[in-house]
Amino acid sequence: MIKFLYESILKKAQPKLPRFNSVGEILKWHHRDYECSYLITHECPARCRHCDFWREKETDAGSTISSIESIFLALRSENFNAINLTGGDPLAHRGFFEIADLCARVGFKFISVNTTGLLLSAKRLERFKNAPVNHVVFSLDGSKEIHDFLRGIPGAHDKVISSLNALKDYKSLQISFVIMDANYDQIPYVAEVARKFGCKLTCQPFDLTLSNSSKDRDLLLTDRKKIALLKKDLLSLKNDSRYKNVLSPTLSHIDKIIQYIKDPSSVSTPCIVGHWRTHFEPNGDVFACYPLGKLGNAFETDFGKIWNGKLYQTIRGRMLRRDCPNCLLNCYTAVNEQVAVWTKKLLVAENENSSG
């Protein structure tokens, strides 16, 4: 299973830690599996104020079950053991269950799904319970009024709650919370929902990294008093024994969240996601990080050549040194914070050696 935290590993390893010579050695030491985030469709029943995917025209040219299988096999040959089916809402893809079965058939050890929950009808829920999916991530932005407002669909909140209740005995569950001005005070409510259903809760600040729209600036949390209240809530939950196994961000990551909200340019933790994760669009386009551009198309070029190619290596280097738009997305921070900490130590050592 994809691990959310590495604190326990660090505690066991301290005070003597290995001498790392590369990011690859760090990832191996942390038992980090390669993971693919596969966006199988842009279609989505929600009308989220902070996401534009549902507005985009679908671009799945060349995408068939056969072509997807060829990519899955290429991923497995490069030792990718985990896959995340995402969207849009992946359940909007007419072949979702066939794709999920295919993931298991080619040998992925960990299969996760991100969903709004809006498409999990009673009939689909029964089928979903038996699908080879290990982990399900639901988005929840707050109470009924707040969540339905931000997702643009009346009843969206209640659908998430009913889906969590239906799946709590069948799947590992997670709630993802995006911090915005409209819901900065909703963390305690969402944490209680997560505790009730045995979920992990991850949170990340909304940013403009993936948006070109000026209207989205209204979603940013900028008021210092609100930011202070947010920090107080996060720390209070983290120090409450009832939520010990619920709230995923470590204390140091909570500090980074608050720091990032105040000044995005101030966060300098190396981004190592390019070393262990790849992103696919429905049409086969491959990305290490969306803002840094397309690295190839797996329907046209063997994925192994893209993954091991010079362009991908160059982008990995840029990400490590934060030569990028600078974000604090859960694709690396909530999952891989401690790996990034040791990567930073490695980069510092490299710089000292090169300057000496």
Briefly say what this structure is:
By secondary structure, this protein is an alpha/beta fold. It has 14 helices and 9 strands.
Structure commentary:
- The chain has 356 residues and is an alpha/beta fold.
- It is 41% helix and 14% strand.
- It contains 14 helices and nine strands.
- It has helices at residues 7-13, 23-29, 65-77, 96-106, 122-129, 144-151, 156-167, 187-197, 224-238, 251-262, 273-276, 303-307, 310-320, 333-355, and strands at 34-41, 80-87, 110-115, 135-139, 172-179, 200-205, 277-280, 285-287, 296-297.
- A nine-stranded mixed beta sheet has the order 6-5-4-3-2-1-7-8-9.
- Helix 3 (65-77) runs parallel beside helix 4 and helix 9 packs antiparallel against helix 10.
- The chain is globular, with a radius of gyration of 20 Å.
- The protein starts with 6 loop residues before the first helix and ends with a helix.
